[in-house]
Structures are given as structure tokens and as C-alpha cells.
Amino acid sequence: MASGAGIEGPHGLGESTSAEGSGGGVLSGPVRRTLKAGEIPNTLIECTHSVECAGCPLIAGDYAEQLGTKRARVVSAAAHYPSLGLLQTSSVIPADPITGYRGRAKLIVAPSGAIGLYGRTGHHEVVDIPGCRVLTPALAAVTSRLRELIASPPPEVRPLLLPYDPARGGVLRALDLREVHLAPGTPLFAEVGATEDNPAFVLVTFVLQRERACTRDELREAGRAIRPMLPRVIGVAANFHDAEAPQILGPETIVLDGTAHAEDRIGQTYHIAAFGSFVQAHRAQAARVHALLLREIASLENDGPVIEGEAALGPASRRKEPPRILDLYGGSGAISLALAQGGNRVLMVESFAPAAANARAAAEAQGLSQRVEVRTGDVAEIVGSLVNSSEKFDGIVVNPPRRGVSPTAREAIARLGAPLLVYVSCDPDTLARDLDHFCRLGYSSTELTPLDMIPLTEEIETIAALRRTPPPAPKVIYDDDGVLVVEKGPHEPVATQPEYLGSLLARCARIPGSTTTPIIVHPLDPGTSGLVMLARSEEAAARWGEALAKTGRLIYLAAAKGVTPGKGAITRDLREGTRTYTARTRYRRLAVASGHSILRVIPDGGRTHQIRRHLAAIGHPILGDERYGHVPTNRYFEEKHGLDRSFVHLVRIEIEHPRTGVKMIIESTLPGDLRSALERSTGPSVLRFLEQKHALGEQRAVPVLTTASDEPAPSSRMIPLRPEDAESAPPPSIRSPGPISIRVPDLDESPRTIRHPIISTGDED
Ligand SMILES: C[S@@+](CC[C@H](N)C(=O)[O-])C[C@H]1O[C@@H](n2cnc3c(N)ncnc32)[C@H](O)[C@@H]1O
Questions:
Q1: Average pLDDT per 10 consecutive residues for the chain, totaling 765 residues
Q2: Fewest CB atoms within 10 Å of the CB: 80, 144, 525, 716?
Q3: DSSP conformational letter for 522
Q4: Burial 105-114 (b: 16+ CB within 10 A, else e)
Q5: Is 359 touching ligand 1 by the criterion CB < 6 Å?
Q6: Alpha carbons within 13 A on the beta-carbon side of 288
Q7: Mapping DSSP to helix (H, G, I), strand (E, B) and coil, where does residue 181 land?
Q8: Are 177 and 186 in contact (CB under 8 A)?
């Protein structure tokens, strides 16, 4: 990896200048040298705010080190999933420049007039950042001028500039700044005097506390007055922040003065930028993503679509058409337009109507409307309708927000059956979760390509190109001549169901030596992951089903809303159809995580949705449970922690072998999506605590010589498991875990101390 000299000079107020090393060193001078392809600068970026400001958490390391940290994030997210074990993660594609790159910034305004970001202390203190190293020069100049104006606001612009102070008054809470590079040949380019050398202009949104804002007319008047005071600002808008809303930007934006949108060039095309609409933070890196997508699509060239009726003529006479690409989560069309410009036919889907309208308008203005069709709506719904109308695509691009692609959308996308699916993600955890699901849906990738879209921060963009591959066989945890116990993934029914593309049983056909379709011994909801026992014959199903009912227990790990009692038994009748059944569910709280409970749950009997219904009945529904759960909490966990299903996993089966009478424990480990959600919501402490308690399962099947029920007041025991025990006691096919002794915690055992190392992050809904 080559190292280069410093790459970017500082801008804004308060910058010092110092010498720039030729091969590295501290950089704050004004010289800029373009890096050679693949070259990584080893320069340290100096910033006077770095001790206090939380905006650039990686700034203390040199760039190669930063890229290493970012790559490690991608690798460790994928490492949660065995299905992604063979995925290679390439080096991170570096950015150039790594300072002065940020073309969109949301900055908080403090009551003191400071404009910046919250500090590293974790308290909501705004750090003023006049010498910010990452804002583009145009944004830095506007911010600098706004700082001066806020310090002594002229009367005509006070309705926009008085900083919000909850106790005293004022209205301005934040600024949303967006740089556009105007496209030559467009009316605005000539109108505002842009040149090819300096096409950068700015759109400014003042985020105002709604109830303190003046009338619309007064705001417009202030907007007209302030625009000429701000350098290169071509449009001014107001957005209204609602009192308790967690996001800075509220849903309503009004244009106060100047243009409402501007043609913003990325690479060869422009899209239409509007106040508050999505844009990638780094223009050059966005163009690089487009180039990577075009390259992936070009690799399809040899498998161009076969025109109906011509297939029989054989490959040589196939008529090729430009590839047809579905661009999902299209925003204002940056990707679609680049793909169309590259010769593809594109159908774009976007739910935010103004962005979709801008994509249409940009396609029209650039003569691309024959190649770009835009549909406004939800991806899952629109892709569902494309499946129903048997539409075909050569490639699908998905570029979802941080929360990733919804399970329903993943199903629908896979049903389209395109030969290529390219996933562009800004969150490695939700990417890994979705890739794991796509694997079971028949799409997999061999490589992850990370790209540095937001230098100096921990953020990382990742691109994965997926091709169609058969879904993998499930992991077999135990098998003998009567049954096999396998692991079921999330979002997968045990047997085929119309609304699901695949099933666990379908994947079982890929288990080496499998000849007949096994019989389900106990059910598991599609949303629940974990162990499923399958019998090789009707007779074995009856025998093992009886053993399960008489001597067995199914033990689940679950997360429930709020803090439950330490333990309990829920006895409630459950209706199924016209009949009512008595049912009991026992639970024990293992930990409290961010104000919610991690439970070990044992249902006595197996009524439909028993655990979910019983826990909901006592006011502690399962987190992520769409049917019986608490919608705002579920939404929060999905947005923030990537939890897109019920947090329930069948972690352990305890059963007496019906033929030998040997007691067995069969375990599965907590799957990656639930691990990741837990880690994101609480840090590593809860997982470590549960690991120490042996509550997360181990992917093993072991015989036990004593069980909890053999002794009156059991506690965890070290059960000797000598090699000869393993051979003599259990049926021969039970797989020994290998170690000489294993610790088998008794599941009725109360953790002697329930520690609460878990930090409440104030993240209650
Ligand atoms: C990360 S941005 C990607 C924008 C675009 N691909 C680009 O490169 O500029 C995600 C976009 O997805 C849109 N979106 C979010 N959820 C959606 C859904 N369920 N259906 C359709 N679009 C959605 C958002 O409005 C946003 O414009």
C-alpha cells in the first residue's frame, strides 16, 4: 500500500498553517496534491476541535489506520453469520480528498450561538467548530458568515437567527447546509454565474422551533433579506422542528427565497437536489459507487436477456438489449441517472414523492426519460406488484437507508430472480443481516467492497454483488436413525408457505444423503429462529413427539419489552379457532438490557404463538413482535438496532432419547441478527454476561448423565464427560463436543446474582 503526502489544506476560521511532509506527517497547510490511484495518504489531519468535537472520531489515527478500523467493522459484522464465512472483505476504497469533502452538514445551534456538533462528553453540549476540517470550502464559508450574523443579527433577519434557548426564547435550533455543483448548460448555471472551475453553490435550511417561529410571511421576508448576506447561497428554506421529535429535521420545509432546487452534478449526470433530500456525503466517492455499479452490470454482458420466442434459436442468435435494471431506494435518482447514462434501461422506486418527481424531471431534462421510469411508493409493495406481473430484470440495485431492506422486500426482490443483485449499504450490521437472509433466498456474494464515503468518521459504505446460488443446507446439530435436529434461520417457515419463497424443509433436501422429506416433530414460527426436530419416518415422529411431550422441554431465549419480574409463570387459556386450551409459560429474567428484559422462556405445551401471546398478556411483549408487540418500541429497535423480527430463539432442546433413555441436551447458538441487535443496544456487556451464564447456546448435542430434575435443589454442575462416556452412554451417533468436561447449567437455576451492567441509554420509546 503506497503512502502519499498530505492531501488537503484547511479552510474556515481559526486554522493554523504548518509545514506539510512529503510522505506523511501532520497536515494543516494549504497545498493539495491529487493522490495516485490506490494511494493511501499517511498524513495525520490536525484539527483544533478534535479533542472536544465528536464529529470525526477516527481523526487521531493516520488514514491507513482509519481504513483498517473501517474494514474491521465490516469484517466483524459479517462474522456474526456462519453463512457469510467465506465472504472476502477487500481493502477499503480510499477517499480523495479526506478533508474539505463534506457537501451536506446538519449543524446544531447552541443558545450561545455556537454552531457545531455535540461533544464527546455524551452530554448535549454543542462544540463550536469554526475550523472544521471536513466541510467543503463553500459550506465552511457560509457557516463562518452565519456565525458572525448570529453574534450580532441585523433586525431584518432576527426571525431566522436568534438561537433557540428553552428557557429564554429564540427560534433557531439547527442548520442544514447542502452544497450543489451546478451542471453546465442548465438555466441556473448561467443565472447565478457559475463557472466550470467553480460550480459550487449552497442551499441553506434554517431549522426552527415550530411554536416559536414567526408567520410564514415574516419568515419569507427574513429569507429574502438574509440570502444576499450569505456567500454563494442560491436558496433559503425553513424547516420546523416539533417539540419532542428526536430527529433534527421535521417533516415540513418551506422555501423562503431563491431556488427551490438545483441541478447537482455527480460524475457525468446531474440529479435535482432539494432542501433536505438525500445526498451522499462525498461527491467523488458517490461517483465511484456509480462506476462500480456500471462495472458489475457490464459483467452481465454475456448473459443478456433472451427475447421471448428467440430462446430456442440458441445463444449465438440471441438478440441483446440494453440491460434492464431495477434501482430500489432511488432517492432523487443519482444512481438511476448514472446507470441510464451508461446505456441501461432503469426502473427506479422511491417512496419520497418529491425526490421521485425530481428524478423524473432530471431524466427528462437530460434526454434520459426513454431509459428511466420512476415509480413512487414502498419498495416491498412495488416489487411485489412487479413479481405479480412477471416483470424481468437483468440486475437489481438496492441502496436502502441504515435500517436495511425489510424482510418482505427481501422476499419480493428474490422472487424477481434477477441474475445480479447489487447491495449498496451504509450500515455493515444491517447489510450482514440482509445478506444472511438473501443466502437462504438463493443469492450470495463472494466479496464485500467497502468504500470510505465519510472520511475521519467510523461510517463505512459497502458494496456487495450477489449472484443466484442455491440456498445452503441447514446446519445439522444432531442426527441419528430416527431424527435430525437442524437450525432454522429467521424469516423462514419450516414447511413451504405461499408467502415465503423457501423453507427449512426445502433446504433440508440439500443435506448430503438426504432422500426423503422429513416430518416436523414440533413447529416453529417463521419469525422465530433456532432448533427444529425433524423425523425420518412417521413412526420416529410419533416416538420423538411423545418423548418431547413427556420428558422434553423446549427452551427459548427471548427479549421482552420493559423489566419483567425476576421470574414467573403465565397461565392463560389460549384460543385456537373455536377451541380454548389451557397453557402455561414459565420465564426467568437473565438480564436487563437498555430497560428491556432478556428472558429464558419455557412453554409447557406448544400452542400457536404461545410465548408471544403470553408475554404480551402480562404487558411485556416480545421485542420486534409485529403481531402482539408494541409498535413504537419495535420501530425504534428496527431503526436503531436493526431488529426486524421477534426476538425469540429456540436455543435448547432437552429430551430423553426414546430408545436408549439417555438424557440429551441439544443446543443452537443465538443467531447473528439477535446478537447484533443486542450488541448495538447495550454494547458487548450483556452478550458477555449471557455467555458467562451459558445462556447463548453452543451448537452442540451432548448426552448428560444427570439432569436438573434428578436433584432437588440443583445448581450448575460440571458434568464429567469422559471419552468412554461419550461412546458408551448415548446412542452412537450423538456427536461429542470434544472437551473432557462441560458445564451444563441447569435452566431452572436462578442466576445467583443478576448483575445489571447494562447501561440505560435513554432509548426507551
Ligand atoms: C440511502 S438513500 C439512497 C438514495 C439514492 N440511491 C442515492 O444514491 O442518492 C435511501 C432512499 O430510500 C428511500 N426509502 C426509504 N424507505 C423506502 C421504502 N420503503 N420504499 C421506497 N423508498 C424508500 C428514502 O426516501 C431515500 O431516498
A1: 33 28 42 59 86 94 95 97 96 95 96 93 88 96 97 96 93 97 94 95 97 96 98 98 84 96 95 90 96 95 49 44 96 97 97 95 97 98 98 98 97 98 98 98 97 97 98 96 96 95 96 89 95 96 95 96 95 88 93 95 89 95 96 95 97 95 95 96 92 89 64 32 31 36 38 26 28
A2: 716
A3: S
A4: bbbbbbbebb
A5: no
A6: 20
A7: strand
A8: no
Residue 529's SS3 state is: strand
**Among candidates 98, 36, 23, which has minimal Cα distance to 66?**
98
Task: Please report where in the chains the cell 442551499 appears, as a residue.
Answer: 203
Using CA atoms, how far apart are residues 663 and 754, in angstroms rounded to an integer? Answer: 29
Helical (H) or strand (E) element with 560: strand 553-560
* 140 C-alpha to ligand 1 centroid (Å): 27
Supply φ then ψ for residue 237, to 5 degrees: -135, 165
Kindly give the distance from the C-alpha atom of residue 420 to the centroid of ligand 1, in angstroms, as a whole number: 20
> Catalytic: which of 132, 426, 439, 508?
426
Annotation: CATH topology of 484-744: Pseudouridine synthase (3.30.2350)
Q: Verify cis geometry, omega within 30 degrees of 0, for the bond prior to 401.
A: no
Count of C-beta atoms within a 10 Å radius of residue 126? 21
Give the domain ranges of the chain. 104-274, 283-304+321-468, 484-744
The answer to whether residue 426 is catalytic is: yes
Predicted structure pTM score: 0.86
User: To test the ligand 1 pocket, which listed residue (264, 272, 278) has its Cβ within 8 A of the most ligand atoms?
Assistant: 278
The class (CATH top level) of 104-274 is mainly beta
Fold of the 283-304+321-468 domain: Rossmann fold (3.40.50)
Which residue, chain included where needed, has cell 421477534? 646
E strand intervals along 605-689 = 648-656, 663-667
Asked if residue 350 has its Cβ within 6 Å of ligand 1, the reply is: yes
Cα(330) to centroid(ligand 1), Å? 5
C-alpha to C-alpha distance for 113 and 404, rounded to whole angstroms: 36
